[in-house]
Amino acid sequence: MKAKSDLLTAARQKPADAAPPRVGRRATVRMPATERREQILNKAFDFFSEYGLTAQTRALAEACGVSQRLLYSVFPSKSALLSAVYEAEIAGVFKAVWFVQLRDRSKPMEQRLNAFYREYYDAVLTRRWMRLFLYASLAEVEMASTYISSIIMQLLDTVIEEAAHEAALALPLDRAERQEIAWILHGAVSHLAIRRHIYHNDSAIRVERVIDLQVRSFLAGLPPLLLADAAQRK
Q1: CA distances (Å), origin 139, targets 49, 113, 118, 134, 147
Q2: Among 73, 89, 105, which residue terminates a domain?
Q3: CB 102 within 8 A of CB 188
Q4: Comparing C-alpha atoms, which of 115, 189, 126 is closest to residue 152?
C-alpha cells in the first residue's frame, strides 16, 4: 500500500517533540506466532493513529519491544502491515448485520437510522479510528478510498433506498446523485466524530441527541428534495 505522493517526504522529518517516543533496548519476550502478530497489529493501530503512516517501523518495533528484524519476520513489509491494519481495524469493525438491520422494514426508518448510527459512532468512529483514517486520507494511500468504495458506497445505497421506500418516493436515476443525498446524513455523523475526537469540540449535548437531530433533519428534508427531482424529470 504505497503512498502516491512524494509531498510527504519532508513530513518525515518531524520536530523532536512530535517524534514517537524511543524506548531502551529490551529482551524480546517469546510468544506464539499468532499472539506476536496480534500484539504487533494492535500496537500498530495505536502507533499509526498517533504518529501517522509516515512514522518509521523501527520506532514501532521499539514500541512493541521487539527488533525490527522480528517485526519484518511477521509482516514482510510496511505495506503488508498497513494492509493488515486496514483489514482488522478499519474495515474489520464494520458489522455486516448492520445492512440487514437497516433493511428491516418492520421498523420505522427513523428508528433504524438512529440505531445504526449510534452503534456506528461508538464502534467505528472512535478517536484512534478517525485519526488513522484521516492520516491515510492525507497520505493518499488506498486505505481510506478502499473503505469508502467497498463499504460506504453500499451503505449510502442502502440508506437512500430504504428512506425513499418508506416515503413512497422515486429515487434519482443517477446512482451518484442518490449517494450524494445519503452523504448528507452520513457526512453529518462523520463530521460529528471529527468535531468531538479531532477538534475537541466539547458540547453538553449528548451524541445520541445530535444523531437524532441529524436523522430527523435528513428524513424531513428528503421528500421535498426527491419530489423536486421527480418534477424536473417530467
Answers
A1: 12, 32, 29, 9, 15
A2: 89
A3: no
A4: 189
Q: Which residue has the cell 483514517?
A: 133
Closest CA to 160 of 209, 103, 200: 103
**pLDDT at site 142:** 86
Q: Residue 71 in contact with residue 60, Cβ under 8 Å?
A: yes
Which of 4-18, 43-57, 61-75, 110-124 has the weakest average pLDDT? 4-18
Residue 30: predicted pLDDT: 73
CATH number at residue 25: 1.10.10.60
> How big is the chain by its Cα radius of gyration, in Å?
21
Residues 117, 172, single domain; the answer is yes
Write down the pTM of the prediction: 0.83
Interval 114-130 mean pLDDT: 97
